[in-house]
Amino acid sequence: MKKNKLPTSIWKDPIQLLACGLGTGAMPYAPGTFGTLLAVPLYWFMQPLSLVWYVGLTGLLFLLGIWLCDYTANKLGVHDHGGIVWDEVAGYLITMTFAPAGWEWMVLGFVLFRLFDIVKPWPIRWLDQHVSGGFGIMVDDVLAGVYAMLVLYMVQASSLL
User: Fold this and answer.
1) pLDDT averaged per 10 residues in sequence order, the chain, 161 residues
2) Where are the domains of the chain?
3) Which of 37, 95, 100, 160 could hold 148 in an S-S bridge, CB 3.0 to 4.6 Å?
4) What is the C-alpha to C-alpha distance for residues 108 and 95, in angstroms, rounded to an integer?
């Protein structure tokens, strides 16, 4: 496992700090997992919102993420540095779009999102390798979030949990 290394500039630039998940992206190992953990309390505060407001806010965070990730990738000189974790935050929020309330669903959504984000089934891996810029950083995690959301919805619909 390759050790994650972020320059100290992220601590001085609020845009980079946001893109790096308020510092969770600076974790030496598994920064994406720690970035996703940052999304869990954010989801907890967002879950009482109506579906329209939840989707709208998640969409705004996605659009903001395109800019944050593009800016930070350019500053770091690396297309999709492992320390940029805003995309994991957006991906987890997408995962949880139709989830019922409860810690069990938050944990299952977390596990499913991380699984799809790490394994990168088609076309996630292709998007990750062929789409550049801030949108490219965000789009593979958005699709991983959609896959995880669909599985979470199927589990909910089948009443397995």
Assistant:
1) 74 92 89 95 96 98 97 89 93 97 96 96 89 93 97 87 52
2) 33-157
3) 95
4) 10
- Decide: 94 and 46 in contact? Cβ < 8 Å: no
pLDDT at residue number 81? 82
pLDDT at 7: 72
Contact of 84 with 134, CB cutoff 8 Å: no
Nearest to 73 by CA among 87, 90, 61, 53: 87
Q: How far apart are CA 148 and CA 93, in angstroms?
A: 10
The distance from CA 22 to its chain's CA centroid, rounded to whole angstroms, is 13
| Residue 69 near residue 138 (C-beta atoms within 8 A) | yes
The residues, any chain, with a CB within 8 Å of residue 19's CB and separated by 6 or more, are 10, 25, 65, 68, 69, 71, 72, 84, 85, 86
Contact 62, 145 (CB under 8 A): no
Q: Residue 160: what pLDDT?
A: 56
